[in-house]
Write a structure and sequence with these properties.
Blueprint lengths: L4 E5 L1 H7 L3 H16 L3 E9 L7 E10 L4 E10 L10 E8 L6 E6 L1 H19 L6 E5 L3 H14 L3 E5 L3 H15 L4 E2 L3 H5 L4 E4 L20 E4 L16 E4 L2 H4 L9 H5 L10 E2 H5 L13 E4 L4 H18 L3 E4 L1
Parallel strand pairs: 1-6, 7-8, 7-10, 8-9, 10-11, 11-14, 12-13, 12-14
Antiparallel strand pairs: 1-15, 2-3, 3-4, 4-5, 5-6
Keywords: Lyase
Enzyme class: lyase
Protein name: Ornithine cyclodeaminase
Length: 333
């Protein structure tokens, strides 16, 4: 067999490469443009639950981006009590392959990739769907993806007010301090969901609930707001979709009936969101096939479950930068 070497980027390599906000957004935008033009394969994620879903599970994401010449499989653990062992709740590995021959091309620590691509999807959704003059952000959750949500959203909107809340006081205080240092502006820590979300322009729900609970109240959502939920378990009242003008998702194949988990799982299973009532997948808005927000009065909901192709796109961006800078290792296959 031909001598084959695999590119390997560990966590320190990924940190050293330090993709900029622009590089992150460009990579993810490119993946969505390819999806819009039918140049990708996105297979719905599958799950491996070692014991019980309230303790944690693995997500397995699979996809292909034809313009990049890459197939990819990412395995990410999502274990809510990892903080007790001083570990991130989400840790991931991305494997990249040649989609023509199946030959392995790279192994990458994808923990940061998971955080960055989630934040980029949140920010891209807001770029097309949020009120044009959004000034107040309310954000539930302080896990790794939360940092990139707020950082990339503020990169676009330069908020006047950022509110954050999470279950553990020590977590939310440390999170706010990190954001204040990095963003150079005040971040308000709230003690309740209502204080965080009520009347905000953009409401992001990235909670870690052990089971579904209607903690995000419909009455807090002002007309014209954008709601972005992506927790594993639903935290939304069933009535929320009654006040929504447009529902946008990242991929209906992952969001539709018969799939486990997800922030709007109950709404889909009870027929409150269907393929017929769905407005769009985000790729068709990014790709210019459909308009996003059309007026200031539209109340819009964007639900993203996580696209394999965004992981692949960021993996490719890291590999390209690593080649230029001489970062990483070669492993013999």
């Amino acid at each position: 067999m031909t001598d084959v070497q695999i590119n390997y980027l560990n966590g320190a390599d990924v940190a050293r490469l330090s993709l900029t906000d622009h590089e992150i957004m460009e990579a993810v935008s490119g993946a969505l443009a390819a999806q819009s033009h039918g140049q990708t394969v996105v297979e719905p994620r599958v799950h491996l639950v070692p014991e019980s879903s309230d303790k944690g599970h693995f997500n397995v994401l699979r996809g292909v981006i034809q313009p990049l010449g890459l197939a990819g499989v990412k395995i990410v653990g999502d274990f809510v009590n990892n903080y007790k062992q001083n570990l991130p709740s989400e840790m991931a590995v991305l494997n990249l392959f040649d989609p023509v021959t199946g030959m392995p091309k790279a192994i990458i620590d994808a923990t940061r990739i998971t955080d960055m691509r989630t934040g980029a999807m949140t920010a891209l959704g807001a770029r097309f769907l949020a009120p044009r003059n959004s000034r107040i952000l309310g954000h539930i959750g302080t896990r790794g993806t939360a940092y990139w949500n707020i950082r990339l959203l503020d990169h676009i909107f330069d908020f006047e007010e950022i509110r954050v809340h999470s279950r553990r006081p020590e977590s939310r205080e440390a999170f706010a301090q990190r954001l204040e240092q990095d963003l150079g502006k005040k971040v308000t820590v709230t003690t309740t969901w209502e204080a965080c979300l009520d009347r905000a322009d953009i409401l992001v729900e990235a909670s870690r609930l052990p089971e579904p609970a209607p903690l995000l109240k419909t009455e807090w959502v002002r007309k014209g707001a954008l709601i972005i939920p992506y927790g594993t378990m639903s935290a939304l009242e069933l009535s929320l979709t009654d006040v929504i003008d447009k529902v946008v998702v990242d991929d209906w194949g992952q969001c539709g009936p018969g799939r486990p988990y997800g922030a709007l799982r109950q709404h889909v299973d009870q027929g409150k969101i269907t393929r017929e009532t769905l407005y769009a997948e985000l790729c068709d808005i990014v790709g210019g096939k459909l308009l996003g927000r059309e007026n200031d009065d539209e109340t819009i909901l964007f639900w993203h479950r996580g696209l394999s192709i965004t992981d692949i796109a960021l993996g490719a961006a890291l590999l390209n930068k690593a080649t230029r800078l001489g970062v990483g290792q070669k492993l013999q296959f």
